[in-house]
What we know:
487 residues, alpha/beta, Amidase signature (AS) enzymes, eleven-stranded mixed β-sheet, globular
Amino acid sequence: MMKLFGSSIKDIAELYRKGETTPRQVVDELLQRIEHVNPALNAFIRLDKEHIDEQVSNAEKMLGSKQSSQLCGIPIAVKDIFTTKGINTTCASKILENFIPPYDATVIAKLKAAGAIIIGKTNMDEFAMGSSTETSYFGPTRNPWAPDTVPGGSSGGSASAVAADMAFGALGTDTGGSIRQPAALCGIVGLKPTYGRVSRYGMIAFASSLDQGGTMTKTVYDSALLLEAIAGFDPKDSTSADRPVEPFTTLLSPGLKNSTIGVPAEYFIEGMDRDVQKAVNSAIETMKRLGAKIVDISLPYTKYAVAVYYILASSEASSNLARYDGVRYGYRSGQSANLMEMYKHTRAQGFGREVKRRIMLGTFALSAGYYSAFYGKAQKARRLIADDFAGAFKKCDLILAPTSPTPAFKLGSKLDDPLKMYLSDIFTIPLNLAGLPGISIPCGFTDNNLPVGMQLIGKQFDEKTILNAAHAYEQETQWYKKKPDIH
Ligand code: GLN
């Protein structure tokens, strides 16, 4: 039975094909494992027990049919930012604690149509604001590699669940690094697709010009498989791109002949963790061995990325979060004499500290007299950052960089120092500003046995190239076979 847990989506699909196990068996065993392991990690904040049975029966019916997808009967965990019909969707906030959406997000509907089983909702930083999953109203999630450290964030619940074999794959969202950074800190694969590649209908908005949903899996193949299932144009999301979705899984090939990988000087900064630097440098050597040509590139505007991001993301958040006012849905404070008081009390009691900080920052940056100095200027700098990448891609097919400057850090160590926390995303944020796809894959371990991730960055809509390179590297190194010691 334990064999199941180390398995990838592809492995389980193969077992189904051979008739060696059934969705019912897999789900039952998985639920037992979750019950056993989750209390220590707090990766799931809700298990979808009521709805699981029906999904399992559907999957079992679908499995026999010829066109059944490899995702059929596979339990998938979902960040609690995606709306799930009839199941609480909270964004890990008190303000949405009792919100039960009347519809499924497009990505959820697509997974269900493929026969995947939505097993439960995972913990996250409140409204996806954070890099450690500590700002959740439901308490922090822990990293299975070292439970006194954070799993990263904001999709830390999804990362922890996949790393601890409580799910075969998961969905996350990435506004400034929230898929890639927790993937790196938990030793799994995290893919942020190109902006517009995956529908955001039913994905609760944080910063709409940056938000993108994506996949968190144990292997690159599984990432390609999940992406195939969730990508594509959606008439319900006006920002989704009308582009064909390639059969990513069948395009994966070993070796890296004919590919040129750029390494940006600005991503190897002073103060970066020594073990991270070592692991990424050795990954560069492996890429060379696999046939890639390595070239030095420069992305000079990188240094402005964090500042630009916090102005733009907070500004957009202040506007997006205006809808939580106690009138339409979610929490309403009961102690108010009039409407204005009700708004104030609801928002004061319903939002946590970090969310309030972002709303205030954003409101300030957008206010009359400051708009052009902050928001306007940040917009211009964003363009320069995007141009940096466009220039670099004239010299290379993809870019290799660390995902996070440090491995998992201790719980509580950055919570009172927002700037320190914000710098966790220094290498991931530039991609969101430029709308580019990026994948984080395991590339080694620190001396303390904490995973290190590296990032492969592609041109817009060129997920194929980064998935390929990631797959070639993964097959060569097989880091994914190493597991955290959690029972
Ligand atoms: N850590 C970044 C932030 O706090 C990014 C979060 C995200 O990608 N959702 O905003």
